[in-house]
Specification:
The complex is a heterodimer. In chain A, about 60% of the residues lie in helices and about 10% in strands. By secondary structure, chain A is of the alpha/beta class. Chain A is elongated, with a radius of gyration of 35 Å. Chain B is of the alpha/beta class. Helix content of chain B is about 65%, strand content about 10%. Chain B is built from 19 helices and eleven strands. Chain B has helices at about 1-15, 15-55, 60-105, 110-115, 120-160, 165-210, 215-220, 220-275, 280-290, 300-305, 305-315, 380-390, 410-415, 430-435, 445-455, 460-465, 480-495, 510-525, 535-540; strands at about 340-345, 360-365, 370-375, 395-400, 405, 420, 430, 470, 500, 530, 545. Chain B has a five-stranded parallel beta sheet with strand order 6-9-10-3-11, with helices on both faces. A four-stranded antiparallel beta sheet of chain B has the order 2-1-4-5, with helices on one face. In chain B, helix 2 (about 15-55) packs parallel to helix 5 (about 120-160) and helix 15 packs across helix 17. Classes of the chains: A alpha/beta, B alpha/beta. At the A-B interface, helix 1, helix 2, helix 3, helix 6 and helix 7 of A face helix 2, helix 3, helix 4, helix 5 and helix 6 of B. Chain A: GO terms for molecular function: ABC-type transporter activity; ATP binding; ATP hydrolysis activity.
Chain lengths: ~550, ~550
Amino acid sequence: MRDVLTLTKPQADRLRICAFLRICADLLWVVQAYAVAAVIAGWLEDDDHGIALVILFAATGVLRALLSYGAGRLVFDLGQQVVQHTRRKLLDAQTVRLDAALSSAEVAALVCDKIPLLAPYFTRFRLAMIRVRVVPVAFVLIALTQSWAVAIVLLVTGPLIPVFMALIGLAARDASARQMVEIGAVNRLLVDRIAALPDILLLGGFDRSRALFVTRVDALREKTMAVLRIAFLSSTVLELFSAIGVAMVALYVGFSLLGEITFGIWGAPLSISQGVFLLLLAPDFFQPLRDLAAAWHDKAGAEAVAEELAGLDVAPVLPILGRGAKVAPLFGPISISVNQAETFAGINLPDFSIGPGESVALTGTSGSGKSTSLTALAGLLPLSCGRITVMGQILNAENADAWRARLTLMPQHIHIPDTTLSEFLDPHGTKADLGPALRIAHASDIVAALPHGLDTRLGELGAGVSGGEARRLLLARAFFSGADVILADEPTADLDAVTAGLIIDALRRAQDSGKTVIVASHDPLLIDAMDRTVGLPEVQA
Amino acid sequence: MRRLWRVASLLWQASPWAMWRGAAAALTVLVMGAALLGLSGWFITATGAAGLAGIGIAFDVFRPSAGVRFLALGRASARYAERLLTHDTTLHALAKLRLALLDRLRHCPIDQLRRLRSAAELTRITADVDALDGLVLRLILPLLAGLLTHIAAFAMLWWLTVPSVALSIAGGYLLGGGLVLWLTARAALVPSKTAERSRQTLRRQVIGLFRGQRETIQQGLLPRRRDELNLTERAEQNAESRLNVIDERAGLVLNLIVTLTAAAALLAGDIAVGLSTLSPAAAAIGFFAALGLAETLLPLRRGLAELGRMHDAAGRILPSETPKPAALPLPEVSPDHQTALVLDRVTVAAPGRQTPLMAALSLTLPLGETTALTGHSGLGKSTLLDAIAAVSAPLSGRVTLLGTSISDWPDKQLREHLTLVPQRARPVGGSIRENLAIACDDLNDSAAWEALTTVELHGVVQRIGGLDATLGESGTGLSGGEARRLALARGVLRRPSVLLLDEPTEGLEGPLARQVLANLKHSLPDTAILIASHRRAEQEMADYLITLQPTHAEK
């Protein structure tokens, strides 16, 4: 996704229109400067067009402001388009792969914090870049019509452009380093302390930890200031160039008017209105350069994001089979068979076949691919060779969604979403009675103990459902969904004997009611409860 | 606005000296900028007049041109100083804000604090303090420096030009600027709240989608979740776009104020020159100074755009009612060392629930003995330890520590006598020494090593570089089991009368677990230790074994 920094044709056109509006606004300053110069010259020459010229100055100023406003709005929309497009592209790619290139928090950070950094790249940096190519050149040319000396002053102090740009680049690199040092470090420290606060309070250690925090923050400030003292130097040089430029123009004009300098003009001596005009031109000649410098860290930020997004494309993507959409289930009695199947990670699935009302335990040492096998059986992982056949069809991208409509998957690490319990158990909103499913899964008492029963909001740390409870609720959901195949990954791991017994019993009940049960486990009690065992080959270290 | 005012005054008090210094530097830059333009304008007009009058030779060029050079160089260096000083000020404020937040949180109940540990909560807090960081740099300092600059400029212009010029500049900038400040602040309040909320929703939905990715795909819900996400994103972008309209409008109005104020100064000068009450050169000062003073207003735009977000964040970071510690500090109690801990028919319930998790429990723990607490998961072992440690209240029954009911202990004294090491206790980022120093004052090396040896962590710490080896945030650099033992070492350093441990050896091999427990008993011979565990090592090492029973309602 490296191309996130390039625009489509219509977008590029739009950026050009925005830049055109901004450049018009910049150049209108020439009209304003002319009006002011004429007014002031009028004061000395007892000319009486003052009021009309002031109105010209004000009206042009209003027009300039309106043009900038229009350009600002247009370019903002452009930024949002880019952000939206990039976000959707990222989500399209990441939602259909399970090889976990990014953690959920990393995707969230990309979507919410980082991708939005692409917008100012266009709205500020690219716009400033276009302006910088046009506006200073135009101003130098205009100055040249009045006085070649002033044009040279501007050319020397200003666009030694390569020098300037190098300085700007330096300033910007330091500026982004600065942002990283100061805020980031203090925030990480804060977040760390807040997360540890319960433990700290239990140790009666708040005051001690606070003192340590203060020391650390002070040290960070010292370090940051040391960086800043150097970082700001380079931007000061930039500042200095423009100040010297303005001062030299002022002095040149003043001495010319006094007649002490006689070079640098075309023929006739410099008039007062020319002098004032040139003086007013000088600061705005530098303005686009300063804007570009200010926008430089937007460039750095966006490039870092583009780099990160590009890095995602380097690793080979192993997408799931199908789209993860709701479709009509595959028809027919359950039959699964695995033949010589191997994943791209080189994990071999054991060969086996299973039919309705049967159960099997996949066993093997950890790392031998028990979880991978279940994932592949659910069509969530493509195979490099061999095949999985379900209901007589080879499992592929076309039928995977329909196959998944017949099965339910119990992962080892259960994610409890931030929804109500009834939404959790009945994700498609059928509103049917959940009672029987809860009873079969030994989960009725869990619901009864919740403060609002089925309307209790769960959530990561909300209603505090324990691991064993979560597994039983998941089983209840499996029963409720009417799925004919249950794939359960270590359903009894980390549970005490009583709770594990309840889970095993519920799985037995599932099989008795005609469901196909496949578990991955190393729990002897659970393995015993299954009809048969399929061992995975030992992994070669 | 009162909230922002409170935050502002808090930040101000953090370092008034740094604030004044920063404002003074900003003031210098603004004044020099306006003076540079004013003087240049005057110089050109005056030289022009002298040239016209043919008295060019007599004109004193030395002082004005020196002034122009001085102001040009001076402004650039003042700018450097301003950057440094205002950033120093901001860093002071940054630290103060975060300390204020920590100070507020310390009075929150511990179980409430545990909920803050989720990634989403912590991100929100970070976003909020970040929003408030802009307050100093983008609002307080520019506003203060701008106001002072206008006062100075007003006085100078009154003296150098005529009152009408001075008044039109001050009036235009102060009234216009004040008005746009007020209007923007009001307009941005609601959309910035909406934008922030939809950004948080977006984050939550993305995290939720990827955490439950398998299940979502398996249930065929992926397209639906994506649609929901797109909807949230659109809401967020709409709110951002509304904010941008407000921001661009503020920019538009600020530009108009600058143009119209400069025009007014030009007009006032024109009239005064026409009436011959003002020389052309002095009139030029007015106009050019008006242009230069635009720098007092334009930098406020960014701060204005963020005002709504700051206002919102201020409400969350420092709400008006800070939780108070107990109304009256409890009087000190005198510990009675006959029995360490007595539980009298205690039951607990899961947070927010009213049904007991287990049958009522009564027990007496003598000092110097170790007791293991077992029972199947879901019976509330951890909740019970919380109740004993006064983290949460028991559903019924009474907990007595060293002869005094647990609720009568003042918190500070309670933590001296009782230490709970929770299952999810985590190290902080920093050195091993810092981690241990949280547990006791005046930690010396030998005490630190002794505690590490007790939990069999000395080998690991030596390997990673001793007491000054640094750990990343939340203790990265140690494995889960090692982090847990580091937390245990902190408990040991407390040397409490009662030590409560929640699954202390989970993830340790049996022999190592037994060794740690034996060391623990050895180095805390007078402590009553209560261990919640479902592992055999603890149960074997304990002097007593207590099994939690289910409530009678359950079979």
